[in-house]
Amino acid sequence: MPGPLSSPVCLTVIWFLSWSLRPSRAQIRTDEVSGVQYGRLGSNVTLACGKSQTGIPVAWHLNHSSALPWHKVTSDGSLVLLHVDHSAQGNYSCYDNRGLLLHSVKLSLGYPPGLLSISCQVPNHTHVRCSWVESVKTFLPAKYNASFRGNGQDWRPCVLNVAHRHCDIYHPAFWQPIHTLRIIETNGLGSEATYVQFRLHVLLKPDPPQSVLVKELEGYSKRLIVSWNIPSSWPVHDAFPLVFHIRYRPLGSMYWSEIFSQESPVVIFDALAGHLHQVQVRARDELNSDSQWSEWSPVLLVQPWEVYTTPQPEEDPEDFFVPFNTKPETSTAKSHNPVLDDEGNLGLVILLVLFSVVILTTVLSLIFVVWVRQRRRDHVTKQELNSMVKMKSMPI
Ligand SMILES: *[C@@H]1O[C@H](CO)[C@@H](O)[C@H](O)[C@H]1NC(C)=O
Ligand SMILES: *[C@@H]1O[C@H](CO)[C@@H](O)[C@H](O)[C@H]1NC(C)=O
Ligand SMILES: *[C@@H]1O[C@H](CO)[C@@H](O)[C@H](O)[C@H]1NC(C)=O
Ligand SMILES: *[C@@H]1O[C@H](CO)[C@@H](O)[C@H](O)[C@H]1NC(C)=O
Ligand SMILES: *[C@@H]1O[C@H](CO)[C@@H](O)[C@H](O)[C@H]1NC(C)=O
């Protein structure tokens, strides 16, 4: 007697349901791949096959291949990888005896974090940068938590830059003698906290002076003038004076001479005449003698001023006029003469002008004299006429 389940319609529905449910079940399983299991390199790592029941044989695959590293499978289906190395990393999947995926996990191998080696730089009174180097290469992604505090104060965050492996402390309490920095590194295999204590006023170390310039002093064969700017990371404020250390030596000498100064520029009075000199400058907080000198500025090379003894007494007029020549090979004589002619012409013109001025002046004065005399004569004749008229009109 055929039951309801054996009817073709029902069978089709069941087949359809199982077909349509299957991918979704598989989907759920694959999602579990995103689960990552971390294992320690060199140890035995056990991978459980999900909720598989004891006694049912399972098959393990690595990266879709049945080739597995050195291992054993326990009675509950767990895979034990023995003495794992890097090649054991990958996607592990376990299947039941019908080939159904039961569980999948990604294995990442490495080491738990070790202590960090931390160093801090203090380029000014408002900024501390602490960088670290791992003492153990873990091969695993890590998270960090960095904080610091002065004695008896609360922990404050040290702002992390994980890519560059450093963290920044802004405006630390400089008056506190001792600060503690704590960096906690955490990865899939564990967590480790590293503590360091430091004294800010001892770590204070300015950046080197900037724009260092050394120049000769014209007229002085034993002097050099050195100038510089304070490092840009140092506050421009009277409350934070710097002292500068200048050192110099003739190139090749073993011994440096030195000058200390609060101000730029500085004049070196005892340079070795005619020699190249190496010059460097560094800086330190002037008020805090426990603090550190900056690194030296890059070496500068300069030679004091000297009289040029090369035979070049005066500029040769021929050389001087060479650039004006279009044909240098035939020029010397030809170019020389026109120049002389020009000079001669100029003299002649000046002479002519002077001569004409003299002539003109003479002529003018002559005319003037003649004119004056004429006027006087006119005047006299007029007076004579007048008097004659008067005389005529006078009654006799
Ligand atoms: C790993 O397993 C092997 C075999 O079971 C055993 O001999 C060895 O001691 C184990 N190693 C560790 C580190 O547990
Ligand atoms: C391992 O699984 C992840 C997540 O599903 C996948 O992105 C990756 O391609 C797989 N790797 C291999 C080698 O199968
Ligand atoms: C498996 O795939 C991972 C990448 O997902 C790779 O690093 C590993 O070497 C592969 N393992 C094997 C045995 O092929
Ligand atoms: C770092 O640790 C401090 C104190 O242990 C905690 O308050 C803070 O939330 C942690 N920060 C992060 C990003 O985990
Ligand atoms: C202190 O140094 C840091 C890092 O070089 C810099 O960013 C900051 O501006 C400096 N602070 C002052 C007040 O110059």
From TrEMBL:
Gene Ontology molecular function? cytokine receptor activity
Instruction: State the superkingdom.
Output: Eukaryota
Report the coiled-coil segments: none
Fibronectin type-III domain: which residues?
208-304
- Keywords for the protein's UniProt record, in alphabetical order: Disulfide bond, Glycoprotein, Immunoglobulin domain, Membrane, Signal, Transmembrane, Transmembrane helix
Q: Where is the Ig-like domain?
A: 23-94
Database matches in PROSITE patterns: FN3, HEMATOPO_REC_L_F3, IG_LIKE
Q: Which InterPro entries match?
A: FN3_dom, FN3_sf, Hematopoietin_rcpt_L_F3_CS, Ig-like_dom, Ig-like_dom_sf, Ig-like_fold, IL-12
Q: Name one GO cellular component term.
A: membrane
Write the signal peptide boundaries. 1-26
Q: Mind telling me which PANTHER family this protein's record contains?
A: INTERLEUKIN-12 SUBUNIT BETA-RELATED (PTHR48485)
Q: What is this protein called?
A: Interleukin-11 receptor subunit alpha
The root-end lineage is: Eukaryota, Metazoa, Chordata, Craniata, Vertebrata
